[in-house]
Write a structure and sequence with these properties.
InterPro entries: Nmd3 (IPR039768), Nmd3_N (IPR007064)
Helix content: 10-25%
Strand order of the largest sheet: 6-5-4-10-9-8
Biased composition (Basic and acidic residues): 11-26
Protein name: Nonsense-mediated mRNA decay protein 3
Strand content: 35-45%
Pfam family, one: NMD3
Number of domains: 4
Shape: elongated
Number of strands: 25
Mean pLDDT: 89
Bound molecules: zinc ion
GO molecular function: ribosomal large subunit binding
Radius of gyration: 36 Å
Largest sheet: 6 strands, mixed
Low-confidence stretches: none
């Protein structure tokens, strides 16, 4: 060791010359110590004696500071690791710090975290191990408390004009509600939740935490299914603090017809497979394959006879292609060969086609995705 002419203030040994702190940099009193004295008091890691974590037993949210946070933890060990990582402090002068942690489940509520730290201090490799017990306590967060108490501000009632929404429409409506809330949650919004979503005889009822969400959900449903919605305050009550609480009902009306339904507008051109009910009803003529669109004044609900749905169509055998306008197929009920209209969507190479039998006759039904020429 080259003599610097400086001495350790604690033991009096010679110390090598250290660089002067830069202007403005705080003068570190410990910097003057020799290595032996410096390491005598050195702690690489500053760890609390124990850590307590409050976790919501319903949703897994963690109480931090004075709020509940969704941490997306799969189990309490993940939560404990995160909490330990938050609580531990590593000495500022340590470089190239690495750490590892091994959780040891002591009992249901206690996890002992064995943490190993290593780093470089004054050019010397240092390693330190600390053990921090983490105690997990379970509680119910504010949001889960409200959900289990049945609190909600808006109710979206999904109904349909002159019919009952299908199973798919009801399930999709509830799925959209849950997806929407999940998106908000992912953005850190803990005020967004679905209190209850259930099928009812004539549709689906979705209770949701805020009116804003109720309105958003209603708009999304109309975007996807067509139709319209209206909202009205249904109930005024008082919360526990005596404030007035308005509950808003959002009445969503799905259109009279749904895509996939086969209707006869009785205009002489034959049945129509409905392909869209957003705006004016649109569809495909089963006789020609041409496009059908309801008049503006009819909108999504033209006067028409309901014949069935695409799901009622059955596969049958193509016997012969007669000409540009007709195809012979087997009647799926009598197995007699019958001549039916040949629409544009008919594939001349097809051996099988889907047909729907109604009172007025047999009609070819296109595969999904055909919207009319
Ligand atoms: Zn010393
Ligand atoms: Zn919770």
């Amino acid at each position: 060791m080259s003599k610097s002419g400086e001495f350790c203030p604690r033991c009096g040994d010679d110390v090598p010359k250290r660089p002067e702190p830069l202007p403005g940099e705080p003068r570190d009193r410990d910097a003057a110590l020799c290595d032996a004295c410096y390491f005598e008091d050195f702690d690489l890691v500053d760890a609390p004696d124990r850590i307590e974590v409050l976790v919501c037993s319903r949703c897994g949210a963690v109480h931090r500071g004075n709020r509940w946070l969704d941490v997306g933890a799969k189990d309490y060990t993940d939560v404990a690791v995160d909490e330990v990582a938050e609580a531990l402090g590593v000495h500022l002068k340590a470089e190239q710090v690495q750490w590892g942690v091994e959780p040891e489940q002591v009992d249901q509520n206690t996890i002992r975290m064995h943490c190993t730290f290593s780093g470089l201090v004054r050019g010397t490799p240092v390693e330190e191990q600390v053990v921090v017990p983490v105690k997990v306590s379970r509680a119910t967060c504010k949001r889960c408390g409200r959900i289990s108490g049945g609190a909600y501000a808006g109710e979206v009632q999904v109904r349909a004009e002159e019919r009952v929404p299908t199973k798919e429409e009801r399930e999709r409506a509830m799925e959209i509600a849950h997806d929407m809330v999940e998106e908000r949650e992912a953005d850190g919004d803990r005020e967004a939740y679905v209190t209850e979503a259930k099928k009812v005889d004539d549709g689906a009822d979705i209770k949701i935490s805020t009116n804003k969400l109720g309105r958003m959900l209603s708009k999304r449903l109309v975007e996807e299914f067509g139709g319209s919605f209206e909202e009205y305050a249904t109930l005024v009550t008082e919360d526990s603090d005596g404030n007035e609480v308005y509950r808003v009902t959002f009445a969503v009306h799905l259109p009279r017809y749904r895509p996939g339904e086969i209707i006869d507008p009785e205009d002489g051109d034959g049945p129509v497979l409905v392909t869209s009910v957003r705006g004016n009803l649109k569809g495909v003529r089963l006789t020609s394959g041409g496009r059908y669109e309801a008049r503006f004044d009819e909108g999504d609900a033209p006067d028409a006879l309901r014949l069935g749905g695409r799901e009622d169509a059955v596969e049958t055998t193509v016997v012969a292609v007669e000409d540009e306008h007709a195809v012979q197929v087997l009647d799926p009920e009598t197995f007699e060969s019958v001549s039916i209209a040949r629409p544009d969507f008919f594939d001349p190479d097809a051996d099988q086609v889907d047909v729907l039998k109604v009172r007025s006759g047999l009609y070819m039904v296109p595969e999904e995705g055909v919207t009319g020429a």
